[in-house]
């Protein structure tokens, strides 16, 4: 049992000035702390006071990051109690800037870094991690971080942030979480020329050597932590699909950019029909951007359309894609495999021409190109729809296809708007709009929690479809009245519990669960959840 200074240096045990007089005597802490004994609530408010004194959000991110290193319980108590204020600091949009600055603000390690030099002995490297009961691994190779591109090892900020949300929003115990970066190099010349860059100083490993490294990593994970779920995060589109297709039927895994984004977007589209009055099965959906996120959304939407009675061919014809070369249609050269199934027999045309000819009800942006939804685009959507549905999903906020205010003003208040990063409420012509944030945190933490409670052997598309429906049903009438397609973030632990129950139910229904079904599934989910206030 640890005593004295060793307790204060262990973030899982340290409670700082919250230790009582008796605890200080028993644990050898007398003289190591200031005299005052404070409550957990007082400590949380002191943290918030320090946050408010900082000059900018990156400084606030660094403060919270340091707190997580020192006092895990206080960190999560603060984040959970002030979730709406804290989430944009520990994840999007601030995490984008934190990733770009990662090598300069690095303080203390929070995960594992696998390089090409570890080939052949990755199992040895994993053995260096001290925890023996890892259940959630978020892994990236840093090639496509948010809308920022190839950030190499600096992308480690994403797995760290996602796992903080796993604990804060779904109660996965912190010691069961492991961030991993496959540091296979970077093709970003600015990073390679940066003397402070902490990653492997060479161009990216590609082709067979790359996939062999990933294979060895996955095999080592299964050997060391057989109960772990692996979440793939921010891989380049072609690699993201290759890895997902390779492992999805044999490994407890999913890709959040493809499947998590799909579920949260589909949930928002489901909820939008309560505002527009247009049945889901009748929608025409257009995507600007044809990468993994957009295609993942379309794939799940196709499943949802089929559930409404459409054939596979009819369902796919409800989804239209545009990329930098215009409308994705049959006969176009060099289409990527995941785009071919949405290449319809139709004349090739530009984005604006497609808006006029196809007249979509829902427009979804996943481009990373700020301003892609300009005034002309929004006005065309408003001319063709009584309530046009506009999703500007690119992260961080600086990469959004349009702002909330632009969507409302350019559509004369008709738009049903949501985004990937948060926007403040907008008042237009006397009406207050509260743009909901299509944040994957509504989805992936509950998916992980449900997977762990049930021990599902794989994570299926059916689970993501059920999750989308569950989340859409939890959008309240107050949210709908203000044009929001998602519940308030301060309800997210309750939402994650509901998502987890629905995922576990599907695992038991499909015969995929490896844990005996508890008599009370909801109670089992609740009991699994870490609560720093207890």
SSE layout and pairing:
Elements: H1 5-8, H2 21-26, H3 40-53, H4 57-70, H5 72-81, H6 83-90, H7 94-100, H8 102-105, E1 112-115, H9 122-126, E2 136-140, H10 157-170, E3 177-183, H11 189-192, H12 207-224, E4 229-232, H13 237-247, E5 253-255, H14 256-276, E6 285-288, H15 292-307, H16 312-316, E7 319-323, E8 326-327, H17 337-340, H18 351-358, E9 362-365, H19 375-384, E10 389-392, H20 404-410, E11 416-419, E12 426-428, E13 431-433, E14 436-437, H21 444-454, H22 461-473, H23 477-481, H24 492-509, H25 521-528
Helix pairs in contact: 3-5, 4-5, 4-7, 5-6, 5-10, 10-21, 14-15, 14-22, 21-24, 22-24, 24-25
List keywords for this structure.
Rossmann fold, 5-stranded parallel β-sheet, 3 domains, 534 residues, single chain, 25 helices, Hemocyanin, N-terminal domain
Q: Determine the mean pLDDT.
A: 96
What is the CATH level 1 assignment of the largest domain?
Alpha Beta
Largest sheet: 7 strands, mixed
Structural domain count: 3
How many E strands? 14
CATH superfamily of the largest domain: NAD(P)-binding Rossmann-like Domain
* Unreliable residue runs: none
Level of helix content?
40-55%
Tell me what portion of residues adopts beta-strand conformation.
5-15%
- Spatial strand sequence of the major β-sheet: 8-7-6-9-10-11-14
């Amino acid at each position: 049992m640890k005593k004295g200074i060793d307790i204060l240096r262990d973030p899982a045990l340290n409670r700082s000035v919250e230790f009582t007089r008796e605890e200080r005597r028993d644990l050898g802490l007398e003289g190591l702390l200031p005299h005052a004994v404070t409550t957990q609530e007082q400590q949380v408010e002191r943290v918030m006071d320090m946050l408010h004194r900082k000059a900018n959000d990156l400084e606030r991110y660094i403060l919270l990051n340091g707190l997580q290193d020192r006092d895990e319980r206080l960190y999560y108590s603060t984040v959970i109690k002030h979730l709406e204020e804290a989430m944009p600091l520990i994840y999007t949009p601030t995490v984008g800037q934190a990733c770009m600055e990662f090598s300069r603000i690095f303080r203390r390690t929070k995960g594992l870094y696998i390089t090409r030099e570890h080939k052949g002995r990755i199992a040895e490297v994993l053995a260096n991690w001290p925890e023996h009961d890892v259940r959630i691994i978020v892994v990236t190779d840093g090639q496509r971080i948010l809308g920022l591109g190839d950030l190499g090892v600096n992308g480690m900020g994403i797995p760290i942030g996602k796992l903080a949300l796993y604990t804060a929003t779904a109660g996965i115990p912190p010691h069961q979480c492991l961030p991993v970066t496959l540091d296979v190099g970077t093709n970003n010349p600015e990073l390679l020329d940066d003397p402070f860059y902490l990653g492997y100083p060479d161009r990216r490993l590609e082709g067979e050597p790359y996939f062999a490294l990933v294979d060895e990593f996955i095999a080592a994970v299964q050997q060391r932590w057989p109960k772990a779920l692996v979440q793939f995060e921010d891989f380049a589109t072609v690699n993201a699909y290759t890895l997902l297709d390779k492992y999805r039927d044999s490994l407890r895994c999913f890709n959040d950019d493809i499947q998590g984004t799909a579920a949260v977007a589909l949930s928002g589209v489901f909820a939008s029909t309560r505002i527009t009055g247009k049945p889901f099965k009748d929608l025409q959906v257009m995507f600007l951007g044809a990468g993994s996120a957009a295609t993942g959304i379309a794939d799940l939407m196709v499943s949802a359309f089929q559930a409404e009675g459409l054939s596979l061919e009819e369902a796919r014809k409800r989804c239209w894609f545009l990329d930098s070369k215009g409308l994705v249609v049959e006969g176009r050269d060099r289409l990527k495999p995941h785009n071919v199934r949405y290449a319809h027999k139709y004349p090739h045309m530009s984005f604006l021409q497609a808006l006029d000819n196809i007249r979509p009800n829902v427009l979804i942006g996943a481009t990373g190109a700020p301003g892609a939804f300009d005034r002309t685009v929004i006005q065309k959507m408003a001319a063709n729809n009584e309530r046009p549905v506009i999703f500007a999903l690119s992260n961080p906020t600086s990469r959004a296809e349009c702002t909330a205010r632009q969507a409302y003003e350019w559509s004369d208040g008709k738009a049903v708007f949501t985004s990937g990063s948060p926007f403040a409420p907008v008042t237009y012509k006397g009406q207050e709009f509260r743009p909901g944030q299509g944040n994957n945190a509504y989805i992936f933490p509950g998916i992980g929690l449900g997977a762990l409670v049930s021990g599902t052997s794989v994570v299926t598309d059916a689970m993501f479809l059920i999750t989308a429906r569950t989340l859409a049903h939890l959008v309240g009438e107050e949210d709908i009245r203000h044009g929001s397609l998602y519940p308030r973030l301060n309800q997210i632990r309750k939402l994650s519990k509901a998502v987890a129950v629905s995922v576990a139910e599907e695992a038991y229904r499909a015969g995929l669960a490896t844990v005996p079904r508890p008599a009370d599934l909801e109670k089992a989910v609740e009991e699994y959840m870490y609560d720093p206030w207890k």
